[in-house]
């Protein structure tokens, strides 16, 4: 089978590595337009329209993958037309897959579009390649775009409430808006902060592996890769309590209200005071996080694409770990 695959640039470009996993299974993956393609795959919204056009041109089935549907963007003049086009493209796709049950529910509720859950890959091979630093530093880490919905400002305020507060390592892309906001806020609250922008994955995973906790206070995620990556790095997680996170971690993460600094501080203080509970969390969750490995994601995606090419339907793929018995 030949797959004409459209992959995004930027923070999700590691999904390109899935092509290697597919090719190991004797399938050809061409990044972009391939005249010999049997099926067209679009990895996210940024490449959805291009994949749709190629599918129409080649008269081949198109599989569209949906990462999230941020409702607040629908009425934004800059994004409104883009998402109207996206809805049309998804409705015309031969197959739509979602990265989480939460995203699948939102897609169904908002646009009436059915999808199958295939998950999303973390770069588990890159994580394994990073040397274990040994003893962990007195630091905690958060990872993501410098966006107020990520609630990193709440994490900073929370750390000011923690006794013997650890250093806060914040990792995000360079194109984020005003990262200096967090430096000013940390200075105001007396929190030691280290900001890493455009850090390569190996540096990010190194920092995760030598941090005592990852704090994920975001109020919106299609899936939320950093806490999954942290568990695979052996680092306990404090996660905002929302449906997609419960879907992945069930009762096994340290939960908080990401909008409430006191709630975040309580969860962080609990893990710092009882390191054994964090180790137990990692031990219980790490095997489940293998669901998000490159190889296993590639296997699930490949089954969908093969059935699409054969035109014999696609029974639901296995759900995220919390739904696997």
Give a verbal description of the structure:
- Helix 1 crosses helix 13, helix 6 packs across helix 11 and helix 9 packs across helix 12.
- It is globular and about 60 Å long.
- It has 325 residues and is an alpha/beta fold.
- It is 42% helix and 16% strand.
- The strands form two sheets. The chain has a six-stranded parallel sheet, sandwiched between helices.
- It has two domains: 151 residues, 3-Layer(aba) Sandwich (Rossmann fold), CATH 3.40.50.2000; 167 residues, 3-Layer(aba) Sandwich (Rossmann fold), CATH 3.40.50.
- Strand 10, helix 9 and strand 11 form a beta-alpha-beta unit.
- Under CATH at level 1, the class of the largest domain stands as Alpha Beta
* Structural class category: alpha/beta
Number of helices: 13
In whole angstroms, how far apart are the ends?
Answer: 32 Å
Please state the overall shape, judged from the principal axes of the Cα atoms: globular
Q: Helicity level, as a percent range?
A: 40-55%
CATH architecture of the largest domain: 3-Layer(aba) Sandwich
Biggest sheet strand line-up: 2-1-3-4-5-6
Question: Biggest sheet: strands, sense, closure?
Answer: 6 strands, parallel
Radius of gyration: 20 Å
Strand percent estimate: 15-25%
List segments where confidence is low: pLDDT < 50 over at least 5 consecutive residues. none
Instruction: Write the element-wise H/E pattern from the N-terminal end onward.
Output: EHEEHEHEHEHEHEHEHEHEHEHHH
Number of E-type strands: 12
CATH superfamily of the largest domain: Glycogen Phosphorylase B
Q: Domains counted in the coordinates: how many?
A: 2
**Overall pLDDT level:** 89
Could you say what the CATH topology of the largest domain is called? Rossmann fold
């Amino acid at each position: 089978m030949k797959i004409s695959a459209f992959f995004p640039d930027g923070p999700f470009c590691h999904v390109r590595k899935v092509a290697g996993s597919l090719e190991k299974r004797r399938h050809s993956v061409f990044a972009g337009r391939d005249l010999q393609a049997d099926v067209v795959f679009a990895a996210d919204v940024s490449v959805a329209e291009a994949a749709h056009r190629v599918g129409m041109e080649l008269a081949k089935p198109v599989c569209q993958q949906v990462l999230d549907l941020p409702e607040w963007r629908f009425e934004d003049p800059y994004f409104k037309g883009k998402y109207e086009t996206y809805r049309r493209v998804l409705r015309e796709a031969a197959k739509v897959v979602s990265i989480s049950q939460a995203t699948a529910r939102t897609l169904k509720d908002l646009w009436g579009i059915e999808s199958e859950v295939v998950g999303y890959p973390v770069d588990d091979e890159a994580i394994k390649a990073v040397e274990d630093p040994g003893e962990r530093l007195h630091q905690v880490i958060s990872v993501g775009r410098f966006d107020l919905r990520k609630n990193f400002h709440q994490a900073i305020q929370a750390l000011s409430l923690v006794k013997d507060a650890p250093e806060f390592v914040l990792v995000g892309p360079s194109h984020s808006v005003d990262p200096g906001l967090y430096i000013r806020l940390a200075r105001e609250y007396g929190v030691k902060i280290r900001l890493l922008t455009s850090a390569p994955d190996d540096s990010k995973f190194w920092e995760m592996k030598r941090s005592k906790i990852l704090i994920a206070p975001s109020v919106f995620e299609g899936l939320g890769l950093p806490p999954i990556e942290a568990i695979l790095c052996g680092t306990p997680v404090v996660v905002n309590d929302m449906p997609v996170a419960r879907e992945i971690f069930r009762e096994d993460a340290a939960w908080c209200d990401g909008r409430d600094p006191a709630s975040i501080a309580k969860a962080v203080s609990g893990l710092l005071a009882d390191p054994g509970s964090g180790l137990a969390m990692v031990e219980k969750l790490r095997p489940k996080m293998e669901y998000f490995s490159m190889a296993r994601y590639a296997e699930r995606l490949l089954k969908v694409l093969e059935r699409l090419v054969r035109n014999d339907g696609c029974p639901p793929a296995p759900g995220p770990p919390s739904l696997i018995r």
